[in-house]
Amino acid sequence: MRTQNYSRKRQAIYELLLSTDTHPSAEWIYNSLKPQYPDLSLGTVYRNLKLLEGNGAVRSVAVVDGCERYDAKMTRHSHFVCKKCGKITDVFFTETMPDLTEKVYIDAAKDVEEYNLIFYGICTEC
Amino acid sequence: MRTQNYSRKRQAIYELLLSTDTHPSAEWIYNSLKPQYPDLSLGTVYRNLKLLEGNGAVRSVAVVDGCERYDAKMTRHSHFVCKKCGKITDVFFTETMPDLTEKVYIDAAKDVEEYNLIFYGICTEC
DNA sequence: CTAAAAAGGATAATAATTATTGATTTCCTG
DNA sequence: CAGGAAATCAATAATTATTATCCTTTTTAG
């Protein structure tokens, strides 16, 4: 049995995601880590993102301009996507964000596990 | 100035979208219309979907398994996506679905234009 | 330390979407 | 109804994000 969860590179990918609020794409992560890990491969980033997503350590928050964007902050919150520059920012509600999955009854659903709420508009910098 | 908005094929694409509740992909639309329009091209479907989306006649409701899915029902409602089979079904709230864009203040946003709320889970048929 | 398992690098393959180009259709104007 | 400009289209090539492959390297349990 393996006791250490993550390989070095997986750890680096995860920690980078934890440390940023840019909701990056695979490519952004790759470019950010490349200096410190010169032999990093883009495929490794993709593979580990999928793997971490499977673990529930990370989630895909949006697809912007055809690119999947990730977040390691797993507390319930939503996102605002700028339609012009693609920047993604966190949206917190003044009260605790409700668990909408408990507030809906969906005929066609056997089990509602989660939801994703995304706001779109233009950011202050655009 | 052109008075008739749509070409035949564009009209057909739009009307198909209006008549179905499957939230189809470009390919599904293409396959559905092909019998009646044997010279229809897949590129035409993609082009017109983007065009209709620009018009606000249609919207992209989700990306499922890497495929953009569209809806012509423009009244405010949300969607449930089955994580297994990819089926998308409408979600209406008992009260009128609130306009959340008026309920949030987002620092980074100059203008919040719309939002998209998607529930995920397993459908009754899976 | 060693062997087995997991992970990675490099690269090829996939697949959805977009762009191109030359032909066809649409529809305003006369 | 005809001419012509603009819009649209079909066919196909190009693009691009992502995934799969395959062989090597790293990691880890014992």
Structure description:
Two copies of one chain form a homodimer. The first copy, chain A, has 126 residues and is an alpha+beta fold. The first copy, chain A, folds into two domains: 1-73, Orthogonal Bundle (Arc Repressor Mutant, subunit A); 75-126, 2-Layer Sandwich (Dna Ligase, domain 1), CATH 3.30.1490.190. Chain A has three helices and five strands, in the order αααβββββ. In chain A, α1 packs across α3 (42-55) and α2 packs across α3 (42-55). The N and C termini of chain A lie far apart (51 Å). Chain A binds a DNA duplex (30 and 30 nucleotides) through residues 1-4, 7-10, 25-27, 39-44, 46-48, 50, 66-68.
State the domain count of chain A: 2
Largest sheet of chain A: 3 strands, mixed
The CATH architecture category of the largest domain in chain A equals: Orthogonal Bundle
Rg of chain A, Cα atoms, Å: 16 Å
The two chains with the largest interface, and their residue counts, are:
A-B, 31 and 31 residues
SSE class of chain A: alpha+beta
The CATH topology name of the largest domain in chain A reads: Arc Repressor Mutant, subunit A
Strand content of chain A: 25-35%
Distance between the termini of chain A: 51 Å
Strand order of the largest sheet of chain A: 4-3-5
Topology of chain A as a string of helices (H) and strands (E): HHHEEEEE
Low-confidence runs of chain A (pLDDT<50, min 5 residues)? none
What is the residue-mean pLDDT of chain A, rounded to a whole number?
A: 91
Oligomer: homodimer
Total E-strand runs of chain A = 5
| Count of individual helical segments of chain A | 3
Helical residue percent band of chain A: 25-40%
Rough outline of chain A: globular
CATH classification class of the largest domain in chain A: Mainly Alpha
